[in-house]
Every structure is written in C-alpha cells, then in structure tokens.
Amino acid sequence: MDDGSVKNFWSILRADEIEDFLDLLSLAGKILKRKVANVEILAGGLTNKSFKVTFEDGFVVVMRLAGKGTGEFISRKGEKHNCTMAAGMGIAPEVYYFDADTGSQLVEFVKMPTMHIEDFQNDAVVLENAGRLLRVLHSAGIKFAGHFDPVAGIDEYMQILKKNGYQDRYDGWDDIYKTVVRIREAYKKNPPSLAPCHNDVLAENFMFDRKEMKLIDWEYGGMGDPYYDASGVLTEDLLDEKATEIYLRAYFDGEPTAEQRARIFVNRFLYCTYWSAWSLVQISNGKEHDLYWQYGLDRAILGKEYMSDPNFGKYLDLIG
Predict the structure, then answer these.
(1) What's the longest Cα–Cα distance across the chain?
(2) Is it the case that residue 12 has pLDDT exceeding 70?
C-alpha cells in the first residue's frame, strides 16, 4: 500500500476502524469482481476517510469509510438517494455500493483535477462551469430526500449548545444571531422556493478537466433554498467582486435581478453562520477545540464582514 504522502497509512485509522476498513476493502473486490492491487490515502474532509483503490486490471474506485456515529446527524439513506440521483444527471460520480446505515461507499474515481480556492479566484472558466452545474441541479425538477433549512439548523445548534452547557461564542455573536432571527421572520412572510441542493460546495468538491465538471460528497444534500446552495461558492472561495459577477451571470444565465442578488448575499451570510454554529457544536461534543474553533471563527469573521455591507439592510428588506 502506498499512502502517497508523508503520513503512515495506518496512522489515519483508529483501532476501532481497522476491521471496518478491511471488511469494506474485501467487499470492494467481491462486488466489482476484481482483485485489489493498491490502496492510497486520499485527502479527506472533517467527517470521513477516503481511499483510492486500484485493482489488478487498472480499474479504480474511491472507497469512503464513513466517520463513526455520523449517521446520527447525517441521513445516510437520504445521501444514498441523492448522490444516486445526481449521478444519473451526470453531475456526480457513479455509485457502485452504498451502505445506507453507515454511509460507507464505493464510487467512481473521477479522473479529473480537484479544484481549489485559487482555481475559483483566478479562472473564469471554472466559475462559469460551477455556476452552470448548480443551475442544472437546482432547475432539474427532481426531488431529493431530506430537507435542509440553514435557519432551522442554526436554531437547532443553539439548542444543542444549551443542552451541552457550552457557553463560548465568537465575538459579535449576539448581533449575528439577531440577524438570523430577522431572516427567519422574513422567510415566514416570503419563504424560499425549494430545489435539490448539495449544500457543501467547497472548492475541493468540484472536479474539472476543462471539458466536464462533477460535484462529489453529497452527504448534506436535500431539498432546500437554491440561493443558499449557490451562495456557498462565493464564501467558500472568497470571491472578489469581479469573480462574483462572472459566477452570478453563469448561475443566473444573465444579469441577476435585485431580489436574486439580495437572496444570494443574505444567504452567503447564512452560509457562514451555519458553519460557525456547527463548529461550536463539534467542540461541545468533545472534538478537537483548536481545529474547530478556528474553522468557526474564520466563518464568523466573514459573516460579520458580509453584515457590514452598507447594502445588507436593503437585501434583508428585499427578501421579506
């Protein structure tokens, strides 16, 4: 086995994960009727551990070992439905096996370069293709399993923090939460339309070879506000004004209306706030403090920056 990095292969697996890893690797050979030749570590997110599995005939898949206990806050049955639907649309990898209880899976290895923040910041072609891909998803007219509501999610996270007795908050959190409450009231009067959404559109979830683009990791997918989903590209990749305009024109297939802009810019604030609250919950549940605190702090600072936009009050008025 070649880890493709300075990491020792076994160092990324906890003792209680080794048996599951070996079972899934054996299952890969049985399902695909091939003999495993090589396994490499793939750079992963905060939730799961992924591996590139190469078989003796050269066929390659991605094997994802889902994080222990993640089925408690991620609907793996819903994820299975959603990623399979997205694969059928041609915008996600083909699914070969999916354990709907644990979330572990075997999927197509997409032989395309992984995108990074710099690609979105500096390459108009990447921005345009990402905008078009999300437009295709949001206008598909299909029904994803599950429902994702960032405002309700933030409120739920606040309740979890209260139950866990966790008191720490980022500077300015009271003002941030007051804005969330105002958005909640606006949505009661004028609720957003629902569409199939990915809801975790960080740069590294986009694969692009200059001809075709695919989106991976659908575990937060569900029916939701497409403006929230689309706004994630702006905040995940810290787009400047020029890049933002290129992306928005691709997503809206032309110049966005005043209300469309308002919904995008309000939702990029919500995007930051949701993940800030998520980070606090991870800490309250005993996960590594410094890692999650810094992640959430960066989001909170960016969310406050969006709130300081002199037009932000007008955006709030337009959505309500």
Answers:
(1) 60
(2) yes
Bridge partners, residue 108, by sequence: 61
What is d(CA 72, CA 82) in angstroms, rounded to the nearest whole number?
A: 18
Give the CB-side neighbour count of residue 50, counting CA atoms within 13 A. 18
**0.70 surpassed by pTM:** yes
* Residue 52 resides in a domain: yes
Q: Which residues is 214 bridged to in the sheet?
A: 207
Backbone angles phi, psi at 259, to 5 degrees: -70, -40
| 87 in any annotated domain | yes
1 lies in some domain: no
Q: How far apart are CA 256 and CA 6, in angstroms?
A: 46
Distance of alpha carbon 148 from alpha carbon 181, whole angstroms: 17
* CA dist., res. 52 & res. 64, Å (int): 9
Pick the last residue of a domain from 86, 108, 130.
108
Q: What size, in residues, is the chain?
A: 320
pLDDT tens per residue across span 146-195: 999 999 999 999 999 999 999 999 999 999 999 999 999 999 999 999 99
Instruction: Give the CATH number of the domain where residue 53 resides.
Output: 3.30.200.20
180, 184, 227, 274 from 153: Cα distances, Å: 11, 11, 16, 7
Q: Which of 189, 179, 198 is nearest to 270 (CA)?
A: 179
Residues 6 or more apart whose CB falls under 8 angstroms from that of 66 comprise: 47, 48, 76, 99, 102, 103, 104, 105
Query: Encoding tokens for residue 253?
Result: 């297939």
Where are any strands of DSSP class E within the chain? Answer: 36-42, 49-55, 60-65, 95-98, 105-108, 147-148, 195-197, 206-208, 213-215, 222-224
Token look-up 């495993």 returns: 36
